Amino acid sequence: MSGKQHVEFHRKVLMRQHLLRQWTPPLGTSAYVPFIGDGDLAAFLYGDLHVYGADLDPDRIATAEEALPFANVDAGAGALRVADCDSWPFADLRPARFSVADFDAYAEPYAAFRAFWARAEKHDRLVLFFTDGQRQAMMRVGKWTSPDGMKLEATTEESRPIFNSYLSKYIWPWFEDFVAPWRVVDRFRYSRGWMIYWGAVIER
């Protein structure tokens, strides 16, 4: 998907910096960044980590390779790939242990998160970020995808209660159940129009 990925880049950075202060990932650990786009956010925040990133757009991966020169096909230094981010793009590489995963999706981050959770080696404390645009689809066309992958459809009147308490009553409870027995140490959120940006620090 082409087009501008970041709106209010500084707010994305501030949210991530806030939660990353809860635990500074050790040098040499890894960050997973699907939907990496041009790599600018990853380079700014995760340049000291081994970045594993993916995007469907080969031109953007080429740009990200310039922004992240140490992320290459060497599994010890990270890797960038043209791949479907809703699956796990790095099954063939030797395991990396992730301390950060940043799902800055264009609309729906949870398929990529579920694939990561099932396949990736994770540090005992993990910082996660999500960009969720499902409320836009909910109100514009009456269709959206729940975080467990179900395709849902409802009238505007039926979906309004979900829209109004989307994060607090639908996303966060699902997330806490999904990652259990991991526990949430901290979380942060902000919104821009119908878009929701949120993150959490979890540990086991």
Q: What topology, given as strand order, has the largest sheet?
A: 3-2-1-4-5-9-8
Number of domains: 1
The CATH homologous superfamily is named Vaccinia Virus protein VP39
Q: Could you give the count of β-strands?
A: 9
What portion of residues is helical?
25-40%
Mean pLDDT score, rounded?
88
Output the CATH class name.
Alpha Beta
Q: Strand pairing plus helix content: what structural class?
A: alpha/beta
Strand count, sense and barrel status of the largest sheet are: 7 strands, mixed
* N-to-C SSE string, H for helix and E for strand: HEHEHEEHEHEEHHEE
| Strand residue percentage | 25-35%
CATH architecture: 3-Layer(aba) Sandwich
Oligomer kind: single chain
Q: How many helices does DSSP assign? A: 7
Terminal Cα span: 35 Å
Please provide a written account of the structure.
The protein has 204 residues and is of the alpha/beta class. It has a single domain, classed as Rossmann fold, CATH 3.40.50.150. It is 34% helix and 29% strand. The protein is built from seven helices and nine strands, in the order αβαβαββαβαββααββ. The strands form two sheets. Strands 3-2-1-4-5-9-8 form a seven-stranded mixed sheet, with helices on both faces. It has a two-stranded antiparallel ribbon with strand order 6-7. Strand 4 (97-103), helix 4 (110-119) and strand 5 form a beta-alpha-beta unit. Helix 5 (134-140) packs antiparallel against helix 6 (156-164) and helix 6 packs across helix 7 (166-179). The longest helix has 14 residues, at 166-179. The relative contact order is 0.15. The mean pLDDT is 88.
